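## Example pair
The file below holds two records. Each record gives the amino-acid sequence first, followed by its structure token line.
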Amino acid sequence: MTAPLRLDDVKGWFPSLDQVLFAWFLTRQDRTGQRGDLLEMGAYLGKSAIFTGAFRRPEERFTVCDLFDTPAADEHNAAEARKSYASLTRAAFDTNYLAFHDELPDVVQAPTSVLPARITPGSCRFVHVDASHLYEHVAGDIETARKALAPGGVVVLDDFRSEHTPGVAAAAWEAVFNGGLRPVCLSTQKLYGTWDDPEPLQDELLAEMRRRGDTRISVQDVAGRRLLRFSGRPEAPRPVVSRFADRPSPGEAARPAGSPGHGGAAAPAPAAPAVSAARRAGRARRLAADVLPPVVTRAIRRRRRRGKP
């Protein structure tokens, strides 16, 4: 397996908006002096774990729990693993993580049900729940997170609203309405919450996202409580860099000396500016689709098809 040159090379589902939110919560905890360990339940190939690991302090423990390529204990979980995570192996996770960090986190290669015996109650400041999509397992993982979190700690629940994960939605909202979980905000994929007062977090986060100006913001009232909702594709932070970031891609490495990309005398003018311009145009089109009313976006697309500026 080839080591990743950048975080985007690691396969997985971790949009830039959630990277912004992870960084905000974890940086705020550092700024306010909140201490505690980090915990991730469900890692896939390590994309969010690599990101989260950048915020671990030397004295803190970062635990990552996943079955990886270990057979699941029950058939329902095994069927889910065969369908969605056939390419997942422990070796792939290790390769990806060590491309960005000097050492692995505390890896627990087992079902998340073993964690209550391994995680000290009240020891964590940040818990990411992204393991099974089955209701019974997610409900158990949320309870594990509740017991693991220190006062003021934050839990993140992945796939709380995806159409193919109704079990996650059921467990998440059950925790909200019956288990004391207080949502802070929602992204497209994740619910961020705490079992403490969410108001200070919401006030600061709302001010920060308004200052950034690169996300859509909705402030709603759900059962008498404020709830923030964010969407969009903001520029992601880069808290960690691959040790292979300067290595040429396989295509570049195969070019002979003197060809484009190797700086030889015969090399033509570099094509990078044209590529960058295309990328900028693509970003502009995506931004227009994100922020303009649909009727305006459709009109712009019709004009482009007719060849008009």
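Second record, same layout:
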Amino acid sequence: MTVRLSRREAVAALAATVAAPAFAADPDIDWAALATDVKAEMAWAWGQYRERAWGKDDFLPVSGGAKSFPLKDHHLGLSLIEAMDTLWVMGLDAEFADALDWVKTSLDFDVDGDVSVFETNIRLVGGLLSAHHASGDPVVLAKARDLADRLLPAFKTPTGMPYRFVNLKTGAVRDPATNPAETGTIIAEFGTLSKLTGDRRYYRAAKRAMEAMYRRRSKIGLLADKIDATTGQWLSRRATVGPPSDSFYEYCWDGWDLLRDRGCKAMYETLTRAILRYQPATIGDRLWFVDVDFETGARLSTEQDELASFYGGLLAQGGAHEQGAAYMRAWASVQDRYGILPEGYDPATGQPTVLTNALRPELADAAFTLWLIDRGAEWRMIGRQHFLNMKRWNRAKYGYTDLADVVTKKQADHCPGYWWSEQMKYYYLLFSDTPRFDYKNNYLSTEGNVLRGFRRGL
């Protein structure tokens, strides 16, 4: 398995070896106009949030209300923080400045409440770091460091793998029954924080947790999806590329790409080699990755989780371009059928297993990643369709909402914080060719936060 030296650079020679269907972009598509439309929708939705839920976490765009996350009853400005680098890269500078002022004057993490270490890291620590990357403001970096300090007590386990929850004020921890994603999706943010502050505690904690998980792989090289962080004992047998394992593999690669950590690259290569040996399955004429027993490789289920649709992009980043492209096409065929991907889908039956969709960005993420690698017309077209479908069915009175049913297209009433950080950014970068972004040397986190690649002063 070959490994590329940069996560998202074009690799034309590699792409040329991939057997792909003939596919051409419509020459009449005005990509600049499409990017302008994405920007206009972002500005409109932001205006609604600014008027009705300023400083709140998740917006409710049907009713105009809000709900808190990751705390149960206290808001931390989640959507605002997640939106900031998207606003910046789109050139919505007045809106970015407004959000920056809120962060500097109103954001306070000294709250007596439990948060998910995983969610808080990728969304809030990562969001603040990307806002710092965009602005260079030292106050924003200080806020990110304060929050990371409040997460560090969770890593004080015998194994180094963190508890799932920590109290922001007291440092009290709970729930050692964790998983690969929540254990290992830390190093991009903590590693960046260590580089910016010179304090290696953050990087060391994240790397120790990853290595502890990796060392417990089975003899055939697979990870199960539930483990006790205090004892290191497995609590399940299922190996999956979907949740709750998905972003562990992503951050093994990212530790190499962003931080040039060769140990992370070696972990990615070993784990991916095992996945490519035991988990691919051709169902119909499509490539899928099925769940298997982590010690034997025996198939457990063909059901797919929508969150796994990012994985085609990751495979291509790591050098397995042919398999990544094939998996992407499998998910794109589901988009062609339903318009909006169901949360769960079983290719063996051809039917959804979960009819909802939580306004997910993963297919757009993979489309953007593959397009950066080979500039293939089909990836841009898939991203375009993802945007147009979202605009048709997810647009509500005050913003964009998730769906209660992808078949009937019945809307729910929730815009998750990641919507502001992820798909709106992927669409814009995919369509705009903005000079504020370095398309050859960049890094986007699992939450879509840009930690490398912004061109300031433009």
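Notes on the second record: Confidence is low (pLDDT under 50) at residues 1-23. The first helix runs from residue 12 to 16.
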